[in-house]
Design goal:
single chain; mainly alpha; 2 domains; elongated
Length: 297
């Protein structure tokens, strides 16, 4: 067991709280929010391997069991949307490889073990091809890293990969184990796989063929389109009142500038007032210049 930091402890408490909130929420909007947060939290926790060695992880596993398995038969449409959390749930379940599954007679430990078995049963029964791939990959990681000696408990009799592909019937444990063996072999071989010279040569040849096909196609045809310039201008034209008003403001600004020059010559002792007025005048000049540019587009 490990001692968690305050932030780690809060992460697990939030995860438990979100699961409990989802189960008690009545409004679909609240459930939608909880479901979204739940999926993200499962993904976050799956990347924090040290959390799996804590006592608090046991409560998370039990809460997930209550959410996904120990629920009434009549489920709402919102409950049916829980499948959106399953991709991140597979990542979370792979991390159970870092949980110590003891085989003692402690009732609490037996409950956690049973919850983990049932959660893997849920995933390995999934029939969607994407979830089948994610589930067997997660279980492959779990099987190759866990210290548990009773892996058979985690595999349901009706696992998706145990059925015959042609008929969809006749579940066979050996068929599932064959698929699992393939996953484990790929995982062990992937770090050492190097492309052979033949593979590189084949890839280069395919690239050359693709380049030749692109050259043969040439440039794609360009289609011209007539644009009604007059209509476009009408859409952008300002009303006459605005245009006339801008012209009057610009003329007034010019007259104001001439008046400022005379004022400075006549009252040279009011330097501070002149500077303040010029500051305002400068900002007004910028604003009017912007209005003029808009009116002339």
């Amino acid at each position: 067991q490990v001692n968690l930091s305050d932030s780690d402890m809060r992460t697990l408490k939030v995860l438990v709280g979100v699961i409990q909130k989802y189960r008690t929420a009545q409004e679909n909007g609240a459930r939608d929010s909880c479901r979204l947060i739940l999926g993200e939290l499962l993904g976050i926790v799956s990347n924090m391997k040290h959390l799996y060695s804590s006592d608090e992880m046991e409560q998370v596993i039990l809460e997930l069991q209550n959410l996904l398995i120990s629920k009434p038969e009549a489920t709402s449409s919102s409950d049916a949307q829980l499948f959106t959390c399953k991709p991140n749930l597979t990542s979370f379940m792979a991390g159970l490889a870092h949980v110590t599954f003891s085989e003692d007679d402690n009732e609490g430990r037996r409950a956690v073990n049973s919850a983990a078995w049932e959660l893997y049963h849920v995933l390995l029964r999934e029939l969607h091809w994407a979830l089948v791939h994610l589930s067997i990959t997660a279980f492959g990681y779990f099987a190759s890293h866990t210290s548990c000696n009773e892996l058979w408990r985690f595999v349901p009799d009706d696992a998706a990969l145990a059925f015959d592909l042609d008929s969809g019937n006749n579940a066979d444990e050996d068929r599932f184990m064959c698929e699992l063996r393939s996953v484990l072999e790929k995982e062990m071989a992937s770090p050492s796989i190097l492309a052979s010279p033949e593979n590189v040569s084949m890839l280069m040849n395919e690239i050359r063929i693709m380049k030749q096909k692109l050259k043969q196609r040439g440039n794609p045809p360009c289609h011209t389109m007539d644009v009604d310039q007059e209509s476009s201008c009408k859409k952008r034209k300002f009303p006459d009142g605005i245009s006339r008003g801008v012209e009057m403001v610009r003329s007034g600004l010019k007259m104001m500038g001439d008046g400022i020059s005379q004022w400075r010559q006549q009252q040279q002792d009011r330097h501070e007032v002149h500077e303040l007025f010029l500051s305002h005048y400068s900002r007004l000049e910028d604003a009017i210049a912007h209005l003029v540019s808009l009116a002339e587009t």
